[in-house]
Design a protein that fits this description.
This protein has 8 helices and no strands. The chain is mainly alpha-helical and about 120 residues long. It has a single domain, classed as Orthogonal Bundle (Chromosomal Replication Initiator Protein Dnaa, Chain: A), CATH 1.10.1750.10. GO terms for molecular function: sequence-specific DNA binding. InterPro entries: Trp_repressor/repl_initiator (IPR010921).
Length: about 120
């Protein structure tokens, strides 16, 4: 589907526009790639990404990155974390807001996103 659209609208500039204005990721990254990247870059354990606890910014960042870069449906992301799909949207929204207030958290998010963008 995405490839057909790209052929119709062109490759370079229009591809960027498609990604920017939609939730369509032209080159989706895998959940496992983001998981490994976060563990290695942030020097954390895998359990920290999945542990349900109040204020677990690493878990919320992981959910945010999965939604933004993998192309996984909200329902599937919710199943991975044992939460409703509506909670996925709310957690990503709250995470973005928290990043605006917390420079250290925003720096970590930008670091991970920078690596993802270089490799996609």
């Amino acid at each position: 589907f995405v490839e057909k659209i790209i052929k119709k609208i062109g490759e370079d500039e229009d591809k960027k526009n498609l990604e920017e204005y939609s939730n369509v990721n032209i080159n989706p990254i895998k959940k496992e790639d983001i998981e490994k990247l976060m563990i290695k870059t942030l020097d954390i354990k895998k359990e920290k990404l999945y542990k349900k606890s109040y204020g677990n910014d690493y878990r919320n960042m992981f959910i945010y990155l999965l939604k933004k870069y993998t192309g996984l449906k909200l329902k599937k992301i919710g199943e991975l974390f044992n939460i409703r799909y509506t909670s996925v949207s709310m957690k990503t929204k709250r995470f973005k807001e928290k990043c605006k207030r917390n420079k250290n958290l925003n720096k970590k998010k930008n670091l991970i996103e920078g690596i993802i963008k270089k490799n996609v």
